[in-house]
Design goal:
The structure holds two protein chains of two kinds. Chain A is α/β, with parallel strands linked by helices. Chain A is built from 14 helices and 14 strands. In chain A, helix 3 crosses helix 4 and helix 4 packs across helix 5. The chains are: A alpha/beta, B mainly alpha.
Chain lengths: 349, 287
Amino acid sequence: MIQVKNLTKKYGDCFALNDVSFDIERGKIYGFLGPNGAGKSTTMNIITGCLSATSGSVTVDGKDIFDRPLEAKRKIGYLPELPPLYTEMTPAEYLAFVAHAKGVSYEDAPRSIRKVMEQTGISHVADKLIRNLSKGYRQRVGIAQALLGDPEVILLDEPTVGLDPKQILEIRELIRELGKTKTVILSSHILAEIRATCDHILILSHGRLVANDSIEALEQSAMADISLTLAVRGTYKDVSDILESIEGVLGIAAACDEPEDGICRLVLDIDMENDPRDAIFYALAEHKMPIVELSMHHATLEDIFLALTSDEVPGEEEIETAESETEEYTPVFAVQADEPIEQTEEADQ
Amino acid sequence: MSAIFKREFKSYFINMSGALFISVLLLFTGIFVTAVNLLGQFAAFEYALENVIIVFLLIVPILSMKSIAEDKRARTDTLLYSLPLRLSSIVMGKYLAMLAVFLIPSGIMALYPLLLSQFGAVNFATAYASLFGFVLLGAALIALCMFMSSLTESQVIAAVIGFASVLLLYFIHAIADMIPSTPAVSLACFLVLAILAALILYHLTKNIAVSAIIGGVLAVLVLVLFVVSPSIFEGAFPSLLNAFALFQRYYDFTYGIFNLKDVLFYLSFTAFFLFLTGKSLDKKRWA
């Protein structure tokens, strides 16, 4: 459906996107995930023809967005980060304008406008000024606009930012509904949101594509990575000597070198094929070293996401993504990065 | 294009700027017709019109300030870019909407000669040729101010630079007269222009090497030309300025001279700024 090849976008000397390639298949919901400034909006703006690329190509259903923009744009519905609304119009007027501009025929326009208004649940505010609508309704008007003209692909840039928890659930439901008939691409810096709605995940970090896989595959690879957190009364040397001799313990990933109150804390990489937990218990008991804590930790998508995206630039991004475990609240407080911030972050590198 | 035109045209009547434009233009036309034609007992509408053009200074920047700046501020430009529309139809749709607003009072003004003909001898050819020139002048100024609007996100800044540039065009004839016509002065002025061109180019491209080279080449070209034949610099700069004396050209129409050259000048001035507006919009995408 959409082929992105070696897409690069440079602002001055900094890369907003660096050699990004991927394919979007028909009929799936894709999620662009990445911290603020990772290049999600830039990628979407380029795919929709709102921004040029320094190099690389984007084809939509075989039509190059730069060479044959009109044909390519007809297949795309786009909701940018800030819904592009003429606030002095009513949703009905606004959608009539967009339908006209998208070339929906005069006879079909009222019917398709009614249809998208029903889909997005804005029929009852159709004749209020957009200026007077709440953020959630404005977002819906923006989505309705993207749906007009029956495009095959819908791109939604951070569609739930700034909405309240109920609105977020409603928008997600709408996205899932759309995904049944159309290809949907949405972006977010919140993992939980992507997990809740998407089939396939594309993780961007510092302008590079660092992961491109289905949610299941990524989760599976995360599950394989298991670690054991252990607190034992004893010195590090004794404990580590014993543990290393046990089959199934792959290594000591982290340890607290200074045992406090005679308790030594360790994190072990273990092989679940050969579960060493029983053996560890008996071995330590034999040496009169009681285990005071033992817990097993599966790596989550969260960990993978953090590992992939937090390598170079420390700071806010990690805090934000860490928050995303509480999925209801994060989006409400999520910080939106504007273009200039994106650039300065790139410049920091 | 028709979608953009329709939306823009309506928007001028939602936010009053269109109504303001029309009423101010008609108000001053009424005042000047009263003063020149009625009180002056003189049926030549063109002499009233000649005075009305000063109103353009104020109302054209106000009409066109929002045309593109507002789209940039409200981020609705992203919508326009993502719609299956050519850039040229976006620019033309917006321009024609303003032109249509301007044509409403012009149409009403076309009734004045008919009215005046009831009371005296009206030279219809001169009167309507003047009105035609009036429309051309307005159309050119609207294109200029639309370009100014495309340079900024702020309507206020758009209005101020629009006003400044229209004012400059208004006085450019007087300024040209002030400048001595010796070759040396023209040379100095052309060198300043070359530097200005380099600075503008740098502002647009942020490429210091290209701007410096082009500015340098222009300056060297001017100097070489000056060494080879200083005589062509005799009064060259003032006549260059006079070429842009948009308002000055208009007086030809009121004197009853219908010069195709003037018509072409206004049309090409308009086309040039529409083209620049398109480039300025495109530049944002290619930044």
